[in-house]
Write a structure and sequence with these properties.
The protein is built from eight helices and seven strands; from the N terminus they run αααββββαβαβαβαα. It is α+β, with helices and mostly antiparallel strands and 181 residues long. A hairpin with a 5-residue loop joins β2 and β3. The relative contact order is 0.15. The model has no long low-confidence stretch (mean pLDDT 91). It binds zinc ion (ZN). The site of zinc ion (ZN) has 5 residues, from loops.
């Protein structure tokens, strides 16, 4: 975490006043941005699962998320859309954004993140199906490498009826109106 100070002194300059506490700040920021490692899906969803006869699709869309790519430690961020088909159990809606946080506040790759969210919902709710779609901009692509500033990465994880039934999947995709680029 001393790379900021190091690169400054490597250039032959003494670190400016503003840089002195930077290693400490970076360390604190990183701890905050990876706090998901200290949380788990189980404790977020516990106590928020309720019995219900509701059996139509439940969707929570456009959940903002911020994560760090595990290859470059650069941010990727965007929207997460979640849907599930309940089977006698529903979950408090405010819990789904918190669940997204648990997994996104770690070092991640978007494909794995998408899958982990879907799997946690499947494990806890045992729904008839679950679908998760994530759209994100990756700073490691935008600021370096190919420098494609407008590239959005879209990943999805479809389980149960969302995988086996085209109609269910299409209803979900239609309702979230995924931006096609
Ligand atoms: Zn990256």
């Amino acid at each position: 975490m001393n790379s900021c100070a190091r690169s400054s002194s490597a250039s032959g300059r003494t670190p400016s006043e503003g840089l002195k506490r930077t290693p400490l700040r970076v360390e604190k920021a990183l701890a905050y941005l990876t706090r998901g490692y200290k949380q788990d899906a189980e404790s977020v969803l516990n106590g928020a699962v309720f019995a219900s006869d509701y059996d139509e699709m439940v969707i929570v869309k456009e959940i903002d998320f911020f994560s760090l790519c595990e290859h470059h430690l650069l941010p990727f961020f965007g929207k997460c859309h979640i849907a599930y088909l309940p089977d006698k159990r529903i979950v408090g809606l405010s819990k789904l954004p918190r669940l997204v946080d648990v997994f996104s506040r770690r070092l991640q790759v978007q494909e794995k993140l998408t899958m982990e969210i879907a799997r946690a919902i499947e494990d806890k709710l045992k729904p008839k199906g679950v679908g998760v779609v994530m759209e994100a901009a990756h700073l490691c692509v935008m600021m370096r490498g190919v420098e494609k500033q407008n590239a959005q990465m879209v990943t999805s994880s479809m389980r149960g009826r969302f995988r086996s039934d085209v109609k269910t999947r299409e209803e979900f995709l239609e309702l979230i109106k995924i931006r096609r680029t």
